[in-house]
Prior knowledge:
182 residues, alpha/beta, 5-stranded mixed β-sheet, 5 strands
Amino acid sequence: MVAPATPADGYALLRAAIASPDPVIFLEPKKLYWSKEEIEFPLRAPGIGTAVIRRPGTDATLIAYGPSVPVALEAAEVAAQEGRSLQVVDLRSIVPFDDETVCAAVRATGRAVVVTESAGFAGVAAEIAARVTERCFSSLAAPVRRVTGFDIPYPPPKLEHFQLPGVDRVLDAVDDLQWEQS
């Protein structure tokens, strides 16, 4: 199951899905349809099952996939202006899950926030938070936080911006990561 966040990843993951001998579910974020990006061919991109660090950081790790990656990147940019260094991990692939990249990123910062558009209860964010907690428990300085869509029926298009995670909600979760008082 793959979820691209950029046009280049959309191209690369779709080609990898077509070439794969296994079935692949390809999630197509609607927001990506209108995105533009210069791509140089031949395109060299990690394959299915490989996450990438979209932005380095030292204070906390934002873990996202698909349409939530631009939200996480924007939140990291705003946080940088406020003096916080947030790392952004783009999963690119939900199954298989890249435990190695994600856990290395979380261990480096000691804090994690999972950002997804899906509902919070019994959703992908819950599984990611559980995996990170199980594998990185001794490295965590705070519980893993989740910023997800609300646990309600999906709203009509004109109201979906209220449902989906935004920069303010992501930054609120980062603020809740039990920062030590200096």
